[in-house]
Amino acid sequence: MDVYDSLGLVRSEVPSGFTLSIRPNQLAEDANGNKIYADKRVRQALAMAVDNNVCLELGMSNYGIPADNCFVGPMHPEHDPSVTRLPFDPAKAKALMDEAGMGDFEHELHSIDDDWRKNTTDAVAAQLRDAGIPVKRTILPGSTFWNDWTKYAFSSTNWNHRPLGTQVLALAFKSGEAWNEAGFANAEFDALLSEANSLADADKRRVVMAKLQAIMIEEGVTIQPYWRTAILHHRDNVVNAGKHIADLPQIYKWGLKA
After folding, report:
1. What is the pTM of this model?
2. Disulfide-capable partner of 152 in 53, 110, 178, 180 (CB 3.0 to 4.6 Å)?
3. Residue 96 to residue 49: CA distance in whole angstroms
4. For 87, which DSSP code?
5. CA 146 to CA 211: how far, in whole Å?
6. Checking DSSP bridges between strand 238-239 and strand 255-256, what pairing results, if any?
7. pLDDT digits (tens, 9 = 90+) for 129-162
8. How deeply is 166 buried, as exposed, middle or buried, from its count of CB atoms within 10 A (0-12, 13-18, 19+)?
9. Residues contacting residue 92 through CB under 8 Å, at least 6 positions apart
10. How far separated are the first and last CA of the chain, in Å rounded?
């Protein structure tokens, strides 16, 4: 961004729903067949050991806004801003991990080998280690990573913008969905999601969404550290080329100054 700015180009930006999920898979098993992340305390510990602001700084150079680990944000009309993440508390995180009998377990955290996704996942791993939680990092090329992206025990995955907060919740966290990489299955969550999808009025839907956000956070479903700022640069003789929130190039709107 700084390079493009230095060239005298016009920057257009908008807070978007582009994001990253660093999630434990609740169905994943160790060599003895024990489910590694079935205990809520383990999942909560992972989330509480990570400062999302640090992930934003190191992963995206602060081009974005911190998120609350619930996959619903201020760009969604039904978002309830009063529902916030579990507090960042590395000492409490370590205590929870020890209490669950996982204090010495080495977590293997997978990511794709690129820039912001790898860097953000590195920042998560470093903070977990700082909290006393052992982590092994495994970085894979895209040709390998995407073959098994829903199966890793602990990994990061990027998600694109969706206009409504209910949409990624339905794709990624509803019981039994093909893209449910977290292995999350919660009957109350599913019922509330169905209710939210039945409400056209965003204000009424927000009441239900608050409960959905709270379940996501309390269950430690994912570390979702930030929302990325969508950015586009263009020359100053181009008009109507503002960045679209979903990264859609609306070429039919573009023009040149007379």
Report:
1. 0.95
2. 110
3. 10
4. P
5. 32
6. antiparallel
7. 999 999 999 999 999 999 999 999 999 999 999 9
8. buried
9. 45, 48
10. 28
